[in-house]
Structure formats: C-alpha cells, structure tokens
Amino acid sequence: MIEYLLLAPLLTSIICFLTKTRKQVETVSVIGSIATLALGLLLVNNVFKYGTIVTWQNALFADAFSAFIVLIVSIVGFVASFYSVGYMGHEFDHNIFDIRKLKMYYSLFHIFMFTMLLVGVTNNLGLWIAIEMTTLVSALLMILYSRKSSVEAAWKYMIICTVGITFALFGTILTYYAAVKILGETGDALNWTSLIAVADQFDPTIMKLAFIFILIGYGTKAGLAPMHTWLPDAHSEAPTPVSALLSGVLLNCAMYGIIRFYAIATKSVGVGFTSNLIIIFGLLSLGIAVPFIILQEDYKRLLAYSSVEHMGIVALGIGFGGVYGIFGAILHMFNHAMTKSLMFFGAGNVLLKHETKEIDKVSGIIKTMPVTGPMLIIGALAITGSPPFSIFLSEFTILAAGFLQGHYVPSILFLLFLIMIFAGFFNNISKMVFGTPKPGITKGEVSRWNLAAMSILIVFIIVLGVYIPPFFYDMIMKVVAVIR
Amino acid sequence: MSEIILGSKMVQLIIALILVSTFLILGSTRLYSCVRAFGIQSFLLACVAGIVAYSTGKNDIYIVAVLTLVIKAAVIPYIFIYIIREIKVKREIELYVNVSPSLIIGGVLVVISYYLIRSISIISELSSFALSASMSLVSIGLFVMISRKKAIMQMLGILIMENGLFLGAISLTYGMPLLVELGIFFDVLIGVLIMGILIFRINKTFETIDTDMLKTLIG
C-alpha cells in the first residue's frame, strides 16, 4: 500500500522525462498526480479504518499523523499539478521555457512529491534523510529560471537549510543515543513505533539537548524565526506552483518532524520545557513577520512572510498543548496549506499578467481578472483569519487553548500580532485588487487550468470555515491522540 | 566498552590528527590544499570507523568505513577538483578573516567545545575526547562557511560539519543504524553534486563565485 503510494510519483517522474511533446508531458503529469491523490486517499482511508500500517521490515509506516501529512501533500500536489499546466504552459508559449526545461520541471516536480510523501511515511527517525532530500530537489526546481535572483535564492536556501538540518542530525544522533541505552543496539532503536513506547525512560538531560538541536534544525526548514531568513527569498523566487508546494506543504513536513520529536521529548522531560521553547519560537515568528508584512513591496514575499507567521501559529498551538491546542495546530496545518496555495496561485496569475512582483505596479485586478480578483479577496480574508473562513476556526481554537492552559501573555501577544498582520496584509492586497487597472493590461484570465485548481482549494476554505465534517473531526482527534 | 576502544591511544592519535587537518584548512589560502586537507580528514575518519569496526566486530561499521573512504575521501574531493578546474576559479581564497586570526579563532573554538562537552555531565562517562573533537569540527566548519568568500568554501564548510557529526555518532553509539547511515551518505553525495551544479550556475550568471554578489534579496 505505502510502496504503491511512493512508486506513483517516482514512475510519473520517469515517464515525464521520457516524453517528447508538451501535450504528452502535461497528460502524464496530470494523470500521475491523480494516481498519487487516489492512492493517498486510499491510504488515509485504510489508516483511519483499520489503524496503523507497517511494511517493509518496519521501515515504512503510516499512523494517523503520517496519513494526515499524506493527505495534505497529495491534495496540494494534485491541484499544483493542475495549476502547473496553465502556468508552465504560459511560460512555454512565451518562450521562457523550452521543451527540455518543461520536461525537467515536471520530472523534478514529481520527485519533489515523492520526497515529501517519504517524510510522512518513514518510520525511522532518519526522516532526516527525506527532509534533506526535499531541500535538494526543490533547490533544483528554483534554478529552472536562470535569473540572478533565483540563483541567489537557491544558493541561500541550500546552504542555510543544509546547515540547519545538520543540527537536526545531531539531535537525532543524541536521541538515538538515549534510545540505545534503553532498547539496546538494534536497527529498530530509531523507529518511531519503538521509541514512543519507551520514551518516558529516556535520560531527560540528553533529550533536552536533543530537542533544542531538533527544534533549531527542523525549525530552520519550517521557517521559524530567527532561522527564517532564506524563506522569503526561496518562496518568492521559485516557480509559482512550486512556491505553493514549498509554503503549503514542505513547511508542514518540517513541522511534522518537530512535532514527532516533541512527542518523544515531552514524555521524557515533561511538558514545561518543550512547550515553553516552542512557544518562544512561535511568538518570535509571528512578531518578526509583522513589520515585514506591513511594509512589504513585493507580493510574493508578502505571502512568504505570511507563511513564517502561520508556522509560528502552528508552533504556538503545539506549545499551548492540551487537546484544543494540538487540535487547533493540526487543523491549522491543513487550513494554511489550502489557503496559502490559493493565494500563491492567485499571485501567480497576477504575475503572469503584469510581469512584475511589485505591489505598487499592480492595481484593479478585480476589473481585469474577474475570477482571480474575488478569489484573492476571499483568500486574503481567509489567510488573515477573518470569519467565516477555515483559518478563523483553527486560530480561534489555538487562542482559546492558550487562555485555557493559562498562557495569558503569549495569548494576548498572539492576538495583537494577528490584528496588526490583518491590517497590513489586507491593505497590501486591496491595493492590488481594487483601483483602476494599469494601462496596457488587457481583460481576461490566463488559463482555465489555473482557475480550476483555485476553485478546488476555495471549496475547502469555505466549507471548513462553517462546518467540520464528523469524519474529518475524528481524523484530527486521532492525530491528536498520536501526539499526546 | 566504548571507553576501551575510543580511549585507546591509537584512536586518540587519529582524532588529534583529524583536528590538525581541520587547522590545515583554516591555515591555507589555496583551494587545492583545502580540498587535500579535507580528503585527509575523511581518510582519517574512515580509519576511526575501521578501528571501531575491528574492535566491535560489527559488519555494519565496516561498510560505513569503506563508504567513508570511497565517497568522502575520494569521490567528493574529486568533484571539488573537477569544479575548480572547470570554472577556472582563482586558486587563492579570499578571506573575510585573515589566516592568523582564523587559526586563533579555531583554537578558541576547540577549547570552548572541550569545556562545553566536559560540562555536560551525562556524557562524561563516555569518551568526551572524541565528542569534543566532533563539536570542534562542527563549529570550525561553521566558521569556515562564514569567514570565506568563495561559494566553494561554504560547501567545504558544510562537509566539515558533516564529518564532525559522523565522528560524534561513531563515538556516541558506534554510528547509526545502517539504513540511516546509507541514507546520509546518499544525501551527502547528492547534496555535493547539486551544490556543484549551483556553483556552476552562480559562475555562469554572476561570472564569479564570490558570495559578495549574492546580496540583492533583502526585506
């Protein structure tokens, strides 16, 4: 089951590489992503019906939390592959990409999907390897455009994330050391399933040290401040469909690593130490995002800083803890993935049309692009946490958890930052959406593929804002049970 | 058990030599010498792994030792030399921090690492010697990354850090499970290849590999 899920994107990638024409490569990519989505949903269904799946001599496994990550990866991957057809097609039509680059793009895209799925289903805490692989592949995706700025962004991304991840490796080694003392030197001593069972016997001093290294290491990859400096560059310079995957999915994968270790470390050292650390990093991320969002001049960077903010919110939810806090954080991971992808897709449409990323050089989208405009407004309202959209619900849950658990100061700061970000973000987006259109911009949307991808996402944003279906609620409760 | 192996004079000598090789990198302004010093360092690391494998009798560690020898002591230095030749880099490294202060900072980092590891009481039961050497390598690697101008030296810095962690893993737990070690080798190799591609790309777009040029994206 899990093998097939991993095989689907790999095969797609190889076939993409072998195709000859644009039509072929697009068909293969879309079919491949549909297959990945179908297998992903099947896996999710099996896990929630029959419980944890373990295969390949314990190397691969899927519990509720893995399945949840698989769900996010495959949904966003699916819509992003739709969007790619429109976006990359446009670049192809305008001779920015030739067929060789187009094939390269789709091959790498599906390998990228593979690595992210691998993060979710690796039993071994060597999920480090999978996370490092995501960095390597996505750096290659970034330099497909040979602009100076993309090369610079890719280099920074590669160097900073690799160093960060090296720290995470040290944390992993320390955890293994703690585990070996209890479990003995077996190949299983890094497996999640065997670790969590005995985590309460681990040496707390070692686990404290390990957790600090893990939090800094994976925190770099998750874009937590102050290790976030590569993020705005990388997310704004990548091709737009990839930006959506980076922001919506990859950050969650890194967060997944942190949360797994959080669960182990908390069992060993008690809840106070780990939660306080995570709360500090979370608040810092929110706080640092505020001025950059208010004063931002580049709309893709605006979205990137908003990702820093939202990862901070997820971290806060985990840090506040309790059923509500973790429930909110998990729900927020999903909601943020959907909403941020929608925003990047909208921004991508604007970019194709206006060929600039400067906020001041764009206006009147609602008149020139009658579908993208309203969608951007809905997305902006949703991402800043206004009711009745999905993010409001998860942010509210996290805030409530903060007060319930007695973290008054962080909760109040959280609320203040949210208000400032709302004002700044919405101000910037409304400058672009309203007003008179810039001269020379013709009316019309870029591609129907793009709009199709965005409509799928908007359904999630609106529906989950007013109603959480019982099966989805059960799913998240099961994830919460895994973490606590 | 671990005391016996890692405390043995032989291993201590090799670890000391590993530190010396790191200082060779700090003290050199020529790219080739840096790459050679890195090769020597990896070779010595493979020796440590070999000795640990011999004394524990574990086949897994033999595999790791051989892989270290092949990948880190041969293939990766070769990739470096290939890059240096292909893009005709100036053989001199420009430094933000000169050689003599670099060496002093390196020394200070070693001392700090030593005391840091000593003060973490839990690990004192273990060979704190190997672990403090590992910490030193990690911190000196970081220092190389920030104090040298050429992109190629940042790549080398990362690899020094990785070597440090390898030493740490060997001295703490005789390395990680084989599956994980193999994965790490795979990642390091692919990582070096991709960084190589990026360096070629940087050279093509900026016509230099000085990272001074990479400062346009801010705010």
Please explain how this structure is put together.
The complex is a heterodimer of chains A (484) and B (219). With 484 residues, chain A is mainly α. Chain A has a domain at 270-484. Chain A contains 19 helices and 2 strands. The radius of gyration of chain A is 21 Å and the shape is globular. The model of chain A has no long low-confidence stretch (mean pLDDT 90). In chain B, helix 2 packs antiparallel against helix 3, helix 3 (31-56) runs antiparallel to helix 4 and helix 6 (128-147) runs antiparallel to helix 7. Chain B has helices at residues 2-7, 9-27, 31-56, 59-86, 99-119, 128-147, 151-173, 178-206. With 219 residues, chain B is an all-alpha fold. Chain B has one domain. The N and C termini of chain B lie far apart (53 Å). Chain B is globular, with a radius of gyration of 18 Å. At the A-B interface, helix 5, helix 6, helix 8 and helix 9 of A face helix 6, helix 7 and helix 8 of B.
List the helices and strands and how they pair.
The complex is a heterodimer of chains A (484) and B (219).
Chain A: H1 2-18, H2 22-50, E1 53-55, E2 60-62, H3 64-93, H4 99-121, H5 127-142, H6 148-183, H7 192-198, H8 204-222, H9 231-237, H10 240-269, H11 271-294, H12 299-320, H13 322-354, H14 365-368, H15 372-383, H16 390-404, H17 408-433, H18 448-466, H19 470-483
Antiparallel strand pairs in A: 1-2
Helix pairs in contact in A: 1-2, 1-4, 2-3, 2-4, 3-4, 3-10, 3-13, 3-18, 4-5, 4-10, 5-6, 5-10, 6-8, 6-9, 8-10, 8-11, 9-10, 9-12, 10-11, 10-12, 10-13, 11-12, 11-17, 12-13, 12-16, 12-17, 13-15, 13-16, 13-18, 13-19, 15-17, 15-18, 16-17, 16-18
Chain B: H1 2-7, H2 9-27, H3 31-56, H4 59-86, H5 99-119, H6 128-147, H7 151-173, H8 178-206
